[in-house]
Amino acid sequence: MAHDLVVAAASAAATSFFLLHVLPKLPKFPQLPSPHADLDERSTTSSAGGGASAYETKKAVEEYLMFHYGAAEDILPYKTGPHSALDFMSRCALLCERHCEALQDFTGDSVDPTTAIDMGCAVGRGTFELSRGFQRVLGVDFSQHFIDAAERMQKEGQLPYSYVLEGDIRRTAVAAIPEDIIRHRCQFTVGDACAVPETWGPVDCVLAANLLCRLPDPKKFLDRCRTLIKPGGILVLVSPYSWLAGWTSKEKWLGGYLRADDQQPQFTRNTIIDYLTKSVGNTVEHGVGEEGDEVQGDFELIESGVEMPFLIREHARKFQWGCSEGMVFKRRKAHSK
Asked: 10 Å Cβ neighbour count for 299?
């Protein structure tokens, strides 16, 4: 017993000596950063992937507030540069307005309000721009941070933010909704484009701007659009086809790969056109033609190849310039038999 007490006392003394005299003299190793420490500092223009969490940061919200609402001279303060890439969301909304039949009905016969969904709305500029033509517009995004910002914009009409000039040097600005926008026409909600509730719709227009290649399963979204959109309504897809495994597993890519059977390139635009305009997944009752006639799909392509450049500012001398393709599909109306 006495021996055990002596050993215990010696051990305690040794530990105390180590803590007081040895440990303070050991060289200190630099603290390793958290694997997520750079998340708030990573620009949304990074091609590193990162998945949906990349948009749940203050930096992402501020970059998108500038992308959607920034003054032209703040976004691109140079005489040279891609000025045609400014006002991206306004141009997306105009593409919708140009092709939506419901907005061309001036007979006064329709009693239903014109409706649109801005899927992947981010901080809401596209939703507000759509409200110029559509009487009810729903903005949907997977990011809670984006929806919080959009709802504040709707409630207050403006939102202060800051943007990077260089390094840690920042400048403040105020995102503001144009005064002629009727804000109460808009509503925002967090939602998943790959799991749209069956209770939504049908609507006259769905806009998906720079969304498709950021979805984990883009075909689920396209399939839902077959019933989400009214017969005669339109689906407006605007995408740069920037497929990244961090967002979409490769087996879910709609293009950007070599086909296994013949090693020929499969481009996204061709996949989308075939998937929406051919008979696969057809939900519309069409008249029966002669034997051997091909059954048409749920949509017809009414415009494609529309150049839709965009510009996202990272700091005063670094930007992401892209040129998405705009395509417009109209949901077919049922044929009489």
From this structure: 26
Contacts of residue 142, defined as CB under 8 A and 6 or more positions apart, other chains included, come to: 52, 55, 120, 190, 191, 192, 193
Counted domains in the chain: 1
Residue 34 lies in a domain: no
179-190 residues labelled b (16+ CB within 10 A) or e (exposed): eebeeebbebee
pLDDT of residue 55: 85
| CATH code of residue 184 | 3.40.50.150
User: What pLDDT band is residue 104 in, cutting at 50, 70 and 90?
Assistant: confident
Q: Could you give the CA distance from residue 272 to residue 241 in angstroms, rounded to a whole number?
A: 11
Beta strands in the chain (DSSP E): 115-119, 136-141, 158-166, 169-176, 186-190, 203-209, 229-239, 257-258, 265-266, 299-315, 318-331
In a domain, 337, yes or no: no
Strand duo 186-190 + 265-266: pairing = unpaired
Classify residue 223 by its DSSP letter.
H
In a domain, 62, yes or no: yes
> In which domain, by residue range, is 245 found?
39-105+112-282+295-331
Instruction: Name the token pair of 57.
Output: 């940061």
